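Q: Fold this one first, please.
A: Sequence and structure below.
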Amino acid sequence: MPDAHERAPVGITMGDAAGIGPEIVVKACAQGLKAPALVYGDADTMRRAAALLGARLNIVEIASAAQARGGPGTIEVVACAAPLPADLPIGRASAPAGQAAYDYLCAAIDDAQAGHIRAIVTAPLSKHSMHLAGIDQPGHTEILAERSHTADFAMMLANDELRVLLVTIHMALAQVPAAITPQAEARAIRLADRACRQMGIAQPRIAVAGLNPHAGEDGKFGREDLDIIGPAIAEARAAGLDVSGPWPGDTIFMRARRGEFDIVVAQYHDQGLIPVKYLGVDQGVNVTVGLPFVRTSVDHGTAFDIAWKGMADHSSLVAAFDLALAMTP
């Protein structure tokens, strides 16, 4: 018999209402998901998205996850924010949409921690919209960590060909070298191992990308790879992890894609995300590793330019949903 956590629905956040979030959530639900789900969002917005797409879905507003009953052809929407105005501007940032998207996420986090939902899958939000609402957060990852009181966390991007976990996330490139510390490297390597094991890999093979060109060329192009990253790798190996590097960043992703490694630890945002996104965002999934619950997300933004035109591809959301199920204990 499944336990209560296994029977709990997956929570999907609607994201920014002015973007493609409502559309891809409706499309995914209309296609059919592999487990029960409920949506943290705005019921009227979801109804408009369903009408736009011609989706025959019964959209029901509920007060809390405890009221969820599920059922075929039904999307249950948890009312967890102020109703959005009917004249909300579409395809651009706005404070009401930013505040609502933040509120949806916070409600889902609280319910995940309480065990009311088994995982969180997030549609895209707009950082600009949140900033207009006075919410000074760089993105989903930091909100998730702060509200769940998680100190050790990391962003991982995954698709069928690559898994990449980041040492540093949302910061200026000029600030990255100072953030490359032994503690940061050790944390990232440990979380990479944990993420792979959650995904069913019993003995993860971890490759660490260097910070500098040619992984520093023995100190010629910078000392971080020699003095910080290398010793952290040696310490992790001594602790029993299968980790190697630092490897040159211009070739390590190709080697991982060919099957030499299960995951690459990248030093900064674009070093890690460009290779994954180059392979296509349709199947990419963003995972926040280290949280006390599973959270996955689409590997793309709000796409304001195509929002509410019925053009958005929901493949990444479905992939994120499926991975959340696979990673749920």
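Q: Good. Now the second chain.
A: Here it is, same layout.
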Amino acid sequence: MRLVEAYAAATGLCAPALPWHSLRTPIADLGGALAFTSGALGKLAADVLLLSRTEIGEVSESTGGASSAMPHKANPARAVLIAAAARQVPALAGVLYGSLAAEDERPPGAWHAEWQPLREALRTVGGAADAAASLAEGLRVHPARMRENLDVTGGLIVSERLVAVLSDLVGRAAARAAVTSAAGRVDREGIALHEALSQEPALADAVSKDRVRALTDPAGYTGSAGTLVDRALRRPDGGPDMV
């Protein structure tokens, strides 16, 4: 035991309470942590893949991968790599969990089955983490395109807010009826929501056209987003808040 403790001290590791041959849970724990990490990184990649689509175009990688067929394309290569890892590692971790059911201290087949999946999981998650760091560092955000996407509905994206605000002025039933009627005109006639609302009789004497225009601007409907972002950036560990 003195040799084990000396080795642990020299390598900066913790001395195990029991011999590793008879304790497979640390291997499974590592596999679970790797699967969790790959999934967390995969969420980042999924968001980038979605938002970098041509029809959305709100973010892009700093240096995308070239396309073999289309010279103009810059594929989100890092996000693709990370997303692929997120789909592979959980299956590798499953093998490590399955190896917990071992009948002996050195069970034939059980601990041997751990070697390749553990190696692959470590390699894959390590590569994904490196790609995620580069992706985050060089991510390009396109606010103008974000604004264009917000304006696609002609203001309908803030209809819930309108009902809430206008309810204090004309009552909930009248507010909902007016917004529903105006929304129908936006769809049928292709006009902006603030124009349709300004023609609703129930709102004529209750709210000015300038106020209606301001209420239909998505930029003024961010709720607690700013506070939540600031709170997230202040967290020292980057983890969820504990109550």
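Q: Anything worth noting on the second one?
A: The first helix runs from residue 2 to 11.
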